Amino acid sequence: MARITNQGKALIAQKQAAGQPVVIDRFIWAHIPGLDHTQPVNPDEPMPSAGQIKNDAAPTQAGYVNPDLVVYSSVLGSNIGTWSFNWLGLASGDTLVAANYVPEQDKTATTGDDIGNNLTKNFALQYRDAQDTSGVTISADTWMIDWTARLDGIDDRERNANQDIYGRQTFINDGFKVERNGGYTLKAGWGYVAGVRINQAADADLGDPGALPKDVWLDVALEGDITGVVATVTPKFSNTTLTDYTDSAGRVHYLEKIAAINGAGVVTDQRTSVTVADGETLADLFLQKAGPADETTAGTAREATLAEVVAGTLSKIFVSPAKLKAWWDQVRVWDNIKNKPATATRWPDHSEVDGLGSAATKNAGKESGDVALLGDPESGTGGAIVIASGRTPNGSWEKRNDGMLIQYGKKSIPSGNGKTTTIAFPIAFIDTSYTVVGDHENRTPTQGTNLVNVGPATVSGFYATTWFWVPGSTTVNFIAKGRWK
């Protein structure tokens, strides 16, 4: 039986005389070897040693029962343990205020598949004006938790989340399908009704439906107690519409029609079902329902085959780096090159194109496999291959495999004697070691446009200065040569 110790009585009297609260800040669980719990608590009970104390923490909650009785509660979850205890105590700082001898019990923690236990212990202190002296202002009634309501709330939240995904009913393959084979059978399988996952391990005989026609319904509920709940499924025949209801135990039953049997006994399946192949999951099914992706719609996409990469006609598939490399390896093979000269049997080497100069050109073609031959593509010498080109509002550009960047365009600028204007390149050079030349359209022999930079050159543009006067503006054509790498 619990008892206030002599040192606890002294502390209470001292605090009451000084008008100060008795603060219980320690709820101690301990194991005292050889303790006889049937004996009364020693009024001079000492504090257990550090090795005997198993858990020492502030009370989880405190409340008053009446002005002379306060209760302190300690709740230990399944994450605490594993040890035995036979002694409980309340302390204020280092002063043991009360103690209790209890039969030896185990406190276990969850380890792997071994589920631990949850323990709650309440310790009552009774003395005159205990509520005022302890400073406890909360009634014990307000913190006694209704675990049943709490767990029911968790179950219902999960059920609602499932219903958001699967709707009012979803059955997998032939799960809970009604079939006629002499009588009526409910097929094994699984599914969801109102968010409750239901499962039937084997086919079940539905029995005699009576006078036809009849509909077949499933009555689904979560039943059990605080230690756990299970889904129950009861098939029902009815020729009227059934609705959800709450039974005498407060459990909600969800009713869903899954089949209709006409007057001739023919069954019509009315389930909402989905087909999931062996090895697949519902997540795979959801991905399939997402549909194919394209440039503007999210969805799923498969990898293109090499033939599809070469054809280049499909848009709702993706090309992996490995497939892209395989395509390029195929394209650069001599036998696969299109539009090559009829007498050519190989790639030319750089010595065969040396001296052609800047006037040498080659039609790059318009189909997959066409290439521009301006030198040796393997060594990157003896000419250059245009590897990229494009246009911007500022003009056109070409990048070559030897690092050269050529840009050209035209720009309308204000005219005037000594008028300087910034002209932007289509893209930036890597540095300012470029050359640029140009002229304005329809100039006379006495007019000209000086395109020499009049200030620090930038990688993105140059300065043009006009040295003549023409009202309005004039258009300057330019070409620039530098490096992109």
UniProtKB/TrEMBL annotation:
- Coiled-coil spans in chain: none
Pfam families given for it? Gp53-like_C, Phage_tail_fib
Determine the domain of life of the protein's source.
Bacteria
Domain Putative tail fiber protein gp53-like C-terminal, chain residue ranges per copy: 401-482
Q: Enumerate the spans annotated as Phage tail fibre protein N-terminal domain.
A: 3-155
Q: What is this protein called?
A: Tail fiber protein
Its source organism is Kistimonas scapharcae
